[in-house]
Amino acid sequence: MFIIPFDDQAILLMDGNKITSKEGTLYGLSPNIKHHEDYVEDIPRYMAIFIDQEMMKEQLSVYNGTEGIEFMGEIVQLQEGLVERIKYFMSEADNVIPGNDLVIRALEVDICHQIIRNLLGISYSNDRVSSRLEVNKAINFMYSNFSSQLSVERIAKEANMSVSHFSRVFKNETGSTVTDYLNKIRIKVVKKLLVKDRLTLTEIAHQSGFNSLSYMSTCFSKYNKILPSQYRDMLRR
User: Fold this and answer.
1) Which of 46, 89, 111, 114 is the most exposed place for a label (fewest CB within 10 A)?
2) In sequence order, which residues have a C-beta less than 8 Å from that of residue 218 and are 6 or more positions away?
3) What are the boundaries of each domain within the chain?
4) pLDDT tens-digit profile of 89-128?
5) What is the largest distance, in Å, between two alpha-carbon atoms of the chain?
6) Phi and psi, residue 62, nearest 5°
7) Whole-number CA gyration radius for the chain
8) With contact defined as beta carbons under 8 Å apart, do 18 and 11 qualify?
9) pLDDT exceeds cutoff 90 at 16
10) What CATH topology corresponds to 127-236?
11) Is 48 helix (H, G, I), strand (E, B) or coil?
12) Measured distance CA(116)–CA(72) in Å, rounded
C-alpha cells in the first residue's frame, strides 16, 4: 500500500510509532505490516494505491539490491507527475473503450515503477524537454506579437525563466540569440510587405515591429545582403 496525502490530517499508528502525513510526500507499507489509522476530527484527504504483491515483486526485481526489501512507512518527497498518472489510470478504468485494457496494463506497470523510483530516490532530468517546450512557447509568442516592442525580459517572462537563463537556453536550442531570432521573424514579415507598393518603407518598418527605418534597413541588409529598397526593386523587375 502506498499513500499520497493531500493534507496533514492522516495519521498512521505502526509499532507504537505515529506517522503523520504531509502534503507533497509519498509513503509505503509492505504487506503484513500491522498498522491502523488514528482518529482525527477533520476528515483526512489522501490517495491510497494498492498493488498486488507478486506484481510488485516482479517490477522490483529489475532494480539491484531490492530483493526482500520492505517498506515500513518510509516517507519521501513526491516526484512530479505521479498523481497525474494515477488520475489517468482511474479515468481509463472508468471508461470501456477499445484498447483501454492495454492502456490500463501499461499504466499499472508505469505507476509501479514511478512509485519504486520515488521510494528509492531514482530520478531523471526532464530539464531539456521542459526547456524546449518553454522555448517553443516563447517563439510562438514572438510570432504572435512581432509588431509590438518586445524586450528580451518580456519574452523570458513568457517562458517563465530569468533573462540570463532564458537567453542561454534559447541560444542552445536555436543557435541564435533572442534578439536575432525576433529580427529574423520581422524580416520575413518585411519581405511580404515589400510586395505591397502602396506601403512606404517607414510604414513597413512600423508594421513589422522595427522602431525605425534605419534599424530595419540595417537588419535587412545583415540577413539578405541588400537593402529593403533594392529588394523591392528586384521584385518589381
Assistant:
1) 46
2) none
3) 2-120, 127-236
4) 999 988 888 898 899 999 999 999 999 998 888 876 556 6
5) 91
6) -85, -5
7) 29
8) yes
9) no
10) Arc Repressor Mutant, subunit A (1.10.10)
11) strand
12) 14
